[in-house]
Protein backbone atom coordinates (compact mmCIF):
# COMPACT_ATOMS: atom_id res chain seq x y z
CA UNK A 1 0.00 0.00 0.00
CA UNK A 2 1.16 3.49 -0.72
CA UNK A 3 -1.11 6.38 0.29
CA UNK A 4 1.45 9.15 -0.23
CA UNK A 5 4.89 8.03 -1.45
CA UNK A 6 4.96 6.25 1.91
CA UNK A 7 2.44 6.28 4.75
CA UNK A 8 1.55 9.93 4.21
CA UNK A 9 1.24 12.47 7.00
CA UNK A 10 -1.98 11.18 8.56
CA UNK A 11 -4.35 8.24 8.54
CA UNK A 12 -6.34 7.80 5.33
CA UNK A 13 -9.60 6.01 6.10
CA UNK A 14 -9.84 4.61 2.56
CA UNK A 15 -6.53 2.84 3.12
CA UNK A 16 -7.55 1.69 6.60
CA UNK A 17 -10.66 0.05 5.15
CA UNK A 18 -8.73 -1.59 2.31
CA UNK A 19 -6.05 -2.84 4.70
CA UNK A 20 -8.73 -4.32 6.96
CA UNK A 21 -10.20 -6.21 4.01
CA UNK A 22 -6.77 -7.49 2.93
CA UNK A 23 -5.83 -8.50 6.48
CA UNK A 24 -9.09 -10.41 6.94
CA UNK A 25 -8.15 -12.39 3.82
CA UNK A 26 -4.75 -13.33 5.22
CA UNK A 27 -2.79 -11.09 2.85
CA UNK A 28 0.74 -10.02 3.81
CA UNK A 29 0.41 -6.25 3.65
CA UNK A 30 3.51 -4.22 2.89
CA UNK A 31 3.93 -0.46 3.00
CA UNK A 32 5.98 1.56 0.54
CA UNK A 33 9.16 3.35 1.67
CA UNK A 34 11.54 5.04 -0.75
CA UNK A 35 15.25 5.18 0.03
CA UNK A 36 16.75 6.99 -2.98
CA UNK A 37 19.57 4.40 -3.22
CA UNK A 38 20.60 4.99 0.43
CA UNK A 39 20.79 8.74 -0.15
CA UNK A 40 17.55 9.57 1.65
CA UNK A 41 18.11 10.40 5.28
CA UNK A 42 17.73 7.29 7.43
CA UNK A 43 15.87 9.46 9.95
CA UNK A 44 13.20 10.20 7.32
CA UNK A 45 12.94 6.52 6.40
CA UNK A 46 12.66 5.63 10.09
CA UNK A 47 9.85 8.18 10.43
CA UNK A 48 8.03 6.48 7.55
CA UNK A 49 8.55 3.10 9.23
CA UNK A 50 7.18 4.42 12.54
CA UNK A 51 4.22 6.06 10.81
CA UNK A 52 3.29 2.86 9.00
CA UNK A 53 2.81 1.17 12.38
CA UNK A 54 1.15 4.22 13.93
CA UNK A 55 -1.31 4.88 11.09
CA UNK A 56 -1.83 1.33 9.79
CA UNK A 57 -0.94 -1.26 12.45
CA UNK A 58 -2.06 -4.16 10.24
CA UNK A 59 0.74 -3.45 7.77
CA UNK A 60 3.24 -6.19 8.54
CA UNK A 61 5.96 -5.64 5.98
CA UNK A 62 7.79 -2.96 4.05
CA UNK A 63 8.64 -2.41 0.40
CA UNK A 64 11.95 -0.56 0.21
CA UNK A 65 12.11 1.15 -3.17
CA UNK A 66 15.19 2.51 -4.92
CA UNK A 67 17.60 0.09 -3.22
CA UNK A 68 21.28 -0.05 -4.17
CA UNK A 69 22.34 -2.68 -6.67
CA UNK A 70 26.12 -2.59 -6.20
CA UNK A 71 28.08 -3.26 -3.05
CA UNK A 72 29.00 -0.31 -0.86
CA UNK A 73 29.62 -1.20 2.80
CA UNK A 74 28.27 2.10 4.15
CA UNK A 75 25.13 1.96 2.05
CA UNK A 76 24.62 -1.73 2.83
CA UNK A 77 24.77 -0.89 6.55
CA UNK A 78 22.09 1.75 5.92
CA UNK A 79 19.74 -1.06 4.84
CA UNK A 80 20.74 -3.55 7.52
CA UNK A 81 20.11 -0.88 10.17
CA UNK A 82 16.70 0.01 8.70
CA UNK A 83 15.58 -3.61 8.51
CA UNK A 84 16.73 -4.19 12.09
CA UNK A 85 14.82 -1.13 13.33
CA UNK A 86 11.73 -2.18 11.39
CA UNK A 87 11.86 -5.62 13.00
CA UNK A 88 11.83 -4.01 16.46
CA UNK A 89 8.57 -2.29 15.43
CA UNK A 90 6.98 -5.62 14.54
CA UNK A 91 7.48 -5.76 10.79
CA UNK A 92 8.36 -9.24 9.55
CA UNK A 93 8.46 -9.16 5.75
CA UNK A 94 10.77 -7.02 3.64
CA UNK A 95 10.97 -6.44 -0.10
CA UNK A 96 13.82 -4.66 -1.87
CA UNK A 97 13.50 -3.03 -5.26
CA UNK A 98 16.85 -2.23 -6.83
CA UNK A 99 15.06 -2.51 -10.19
CA UNK A 100 18.03 -4.35 -11.64
CA UNK A 101 20.36 -7.19 -10.83
CA UNK A 102 21.90 -6.78 -7.42
CA UNK A 103 24.47 -8.48 -5.21
CA UNK A 104 23.93 -11.39 -2.84
CA UNK A 105 23.95 -9.31 0.37
CA UNK A 106 20.77 -7.49 -0.65
CA UNK A 107 19.12 -10.76 -1.67
CA UNK A 108 20.00 -12.29 1.72
CA UNK A 109 18.82 -9.26 3.74
CA UNK A 110 15.32 -9.09 2.28
CA UNK A 111 12.59 -11.72 1.97
CA UNK A 112 11.99 -10.74 -1.66
CA UNK A 113 14.05 -8.79 -4.17
CA UNK A 114 12.70 -7.35 -7.42
CA UNK A 115 15.32 -7.27 -10.14
CA UNK A 116 13.20 -6.14 -13.05
CA UNK A 117 10.46 -3.55 -13.42
Please, could you describe this protein's structure?
41% of the residues lie in helices and 15% in strands. With 117 residues, the chain is an alpha/beta fold. The mean pLDDT is 96.
Write the layout of secondary structure elements.
Elements: H1 13-24, E1 30-34, H2 42-55, E2 61-65, H3 73-88, E3 93-97, H4 104-109, E4 112-113
Parallel strand pairs: 1-2, 2-3, 3-4
Helix pairs in contact: 2-3
Low-confidence stretches: none
Measure the end-to-end span.
Answer: 17 Å
Strand content: 5-15%
- SSE string, helices as H and strands as E: HEHEHEHE
State the helix count. 4
Task: Quote the average pLDDT.
Answer: 96
Q: Would you report the number of β strands?
A: 4
Structural class: alpha/beta
Strand order of the largest sheet: 1-2-3-4
What percent of the residues sit in helical stretches (DSSP H or I)? 40-55%
How would you sum up the major sheet? 4 strands, parallel
Please compute the radius of gyration using only Cα atoms. 14 Å
Anisotropy-based shape: globular
Amino acid sequence: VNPGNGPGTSINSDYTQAIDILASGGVTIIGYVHTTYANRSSALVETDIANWKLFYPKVNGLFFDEVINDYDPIKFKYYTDLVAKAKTRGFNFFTANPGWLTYQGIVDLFNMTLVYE
